[in-house]
Design a protein that fits this description.
The complex is a heterodimer of chains A (280) and B (253). Chain A is of the alpha/beta class. Chain A is 39% helix and 21% strand. Chain A is built from 12 helices and 10 strands. The model of chain A has no long low-confidence stretch (mean pLDDT 93). With 253 residues, chain B is an all-alpha fold. Chain B has 2 domains: 140 residues, no CATH class; 57 residues, no CATH class. Chain B is built from 10 helices and no strands. In chain B, 26% of the residues are buried. Classes of the chains: A alpha/beta (280), B mainly alpha (253). The structure holds adenosine-5'-triphosphate and magnesium ion. Adenosine-5'-triphosphate binds next to helix 1 of chain A.
């Protein structure tokens, strides 16, 4: 049984004029690292919200089709019930930190679920170590940088021990350095067997780690497959998403100069390797 | 507004900070009641004489002095006007007593607010059977006050850049000028509140009736000691107030 299953799912927000999601069919297995991308307003955030039942339980509206998460239909389960299956990290770190220090923040989720205090303490210590938050322990959210806030928000979500981590543009408010730290943490977690769904525009930073890219446009999925396959397709440039430079160079060489490098590169290093191989 | 500093929690490691907030609440209330029992200079001086060492024990005497300095203009104001306008027989004596009482009251409460972290306060409330939602709403208010302040400044700057003259005109005009700040602030806050609710819900807020707490407060021997001593002192002071006439050491003005 797949971990995430959307069957012919459509959704329209209450009061909105058009569908935010149109007939989505999507299956995600355990351990995958799926990057969702697409132009602004195409429904990426809405798709994330369906995975922990925020759509349709928190955001009401018209729905058709079904979303099954770890065997649970989101029409019949509350967001709280799904909180230990799918954890969401949002774009705005400031709005995810609701307590006055890091320890409390991490403890907030497990406390809500009524987990034993000793176990909560154990998780807090584990996550402080894992995400390198020791120096922030006693700090008010206001005294932290955006990157630090986002790391705390991620720890707070992981404290619920979810099977799926859904991160909706977690790096869009961050400087490139902190963004890279966050993305490294995410790919590290994926290697520890966490299923990851990440909405991200900077494909050059994530496509080397991702196992799959889902491309969305106007509420539908328009392409879905391994990064190398998807990024080499023309549709990426048509919709206007940030295809990595190395992949673009590969495409131009192939289409305009008839030079085939053999395989599709995602990073500058890979491209350099291919060029070296071809010229030797 | 620097005198408000004595009501703001400051992180310190002192005996007073380590006391249980419930014990401190009791202590503060007892001290406040005692301050309200007297309106004579001499006993009020004794009370302040007791409070100052407590402030020292909380490692906050400097802060207290700074606040009192900030308050001094207001106090002087009260002193002068009360003395001039009062109908009491010894107006100066009365005004000084009034000021001392104000200082004693403020200091009593500041022992609580200066040394109790908002988190401890909400935990104390929860353990005193206040519903979690209320206690949490309070701590969240403290969490988002700085954020709201920042937002208000940002909106002010935006409106100024668009040519709204915020600090010009008479009182009426100025009051009307608040509208272009308040309205966007409310809209932004509602949007933020929704987003916060989304995040809290995603982390299981309200999921279980039996919410647990990672840390709970526990009364130690020293907390009991503080409570018992406070109670004894309170009873003694009330007895003195009711039965023993105080020497008449007032200033004859
Ligand atoms: N709470 C809401 N109520 C009504 N309509 C909404 C709501 N949230 C999103 N929408 C609408 O649903 C559509 C999809 O929005 P969504 O936020 O999912 O897009 P997105 O791909 O995440 O965009 P972005 O890249 O800007 O974050 C948009 O047309 C948007 O206006
Ligand atoms: Mg979005």
């Amino acid at each position: 049984m797949p971990l995430i299953e959307l069957n012919d799912f459509s959704f329209k927000y209450y009061g909105a004029e058009s569908l935010a999601l149109r007939k989505i069919d999507l299956t995600i297995e355990e351990g995958e690292y799926v990057v969702i991308t697409g132009p602004s307003g195409c429904g990426k955030t809405t798709l994330c919200r369906t995975i922990n039942a925020l759509v349709p339980q928190f955001h009401r509206g018209y729905i058709s089709g079904n979303v099954i998460i770890d065997g649970k239909n989101t029409r019949d389960h509350t967001v709280a019930e799904l909180s230990s299956i799918a954890g969401l990290v949002f774009q705005e770190p400031e709005n995810q930190l609701v307590t006055l220090n890091v320890e409390k923040e991490i403890a907030f989720g497990p406390e809500n679920l009524g987990i034993e205090p000793t176990e909560i303490r154990r998780r807090v210590e584990e996550l402080i170590k894992l995400l390198d938050l020791e120096h922030l322990r006693e700090k008010h959210p206001h005294e932290m940088s955006g990157g630090e806030q986002q790391r705390v928000a991620m720890a707070a979500t992981l404290a619920l021990k979810p099977k799926i981590l859904v991160a909706d543009e977690p790096t869009s408010n961050l400087d490139p350095r902190s963004a890279e730290v966050i993305l490294d943490i995410i790919s590290g977690l994926n290697k520890l067997d966490l299923t990851v769904i990440l909405v991200e525009h900077r494909l050059d930073l994530v496509s080397k780690d991702a196992s799959r890219i889902v491309l969305m446009d106007k509420g539908s999925i328009v392409a879905d497959g391994p990064p190398r396959e998807i990024l080499a397709q023309d549709i990426c440039q048509e919709i206007g998403i940030g295809v990595p430079k190395a992949t673009l160079v590969y495409k131009r060489l192939k289409e305009q100069h008839d030079i085939d490098l053999g395989s599709i590169p995602l990073t500058g290093d890979e491209l350099a390797g291919l060029v070296k191989e071809a010229s030797s | 507004m620097s005198f408000l500093e004595v009501f703001q929690y400051t992180r310190q490691d002192s005996i007073v900070h380590r006391l249980d907030p419930r014990a401190k609440l009791f202590l503060s209330l007892v001290l406040a009641v005692i301050s309200l029992l007297f309106l004579e200079i001499f006993p009020l001086l004794i009370i302040i004489g007791v409070l100052i060492p407590m402030m020292t024990a909380a490692k906050s005497l400097r802060r207290w002095l700074r606040s009192m300095k900030g308050l001094s203009i207001l106090l002087l104001f009260i002193l002068i006007f009360n003395t001039l306008l009062s109908t009491y027989p010894n107006p100066l004596n009365y005004s000084i007593a009034l000021i001392l009482r104000l200082i004693a009251l403020m200091t009593s409460f500041s022992i609580f607010f200066l040394t109790v972290h908002p988190d401890e306060l909400s935990q104390a409330l929860i353990q005193m059977r206040v519903r979690f939602e209320f206690a949490f709403a309070m701590s969240m208010a403290m969490r988002y006050v700085p954020t709201l302040g920042q937002e208000a400044y940002a909106i002010m700057d935006t409106q100024k850049a668009r040519g709204v003259e915020l600090d010009k005109g008479n009182i009426l005009k100025r009051i009307r000028n608040i509208v272009p700040i308040i309205v966007p602030l409310i809209i932004v806050s509602i949007r933020r509140a929704l987003s916060i609710a989304e995040s809290m819900e995603s982390r299981g807020f309200g999921a279980s009736k039996n919410r647990t707490y990672m840390e709970s407060l526990s009364f130690q021997k020293r907390d009991w000691a503080v409570c018992i001593i406070s109670l004894i002192v309170l009873i003694m002071v009330i007895y003195i107030r009711l039965n023993i006439p105080l020497p008449d050491w007032s200033i004859p003005f």
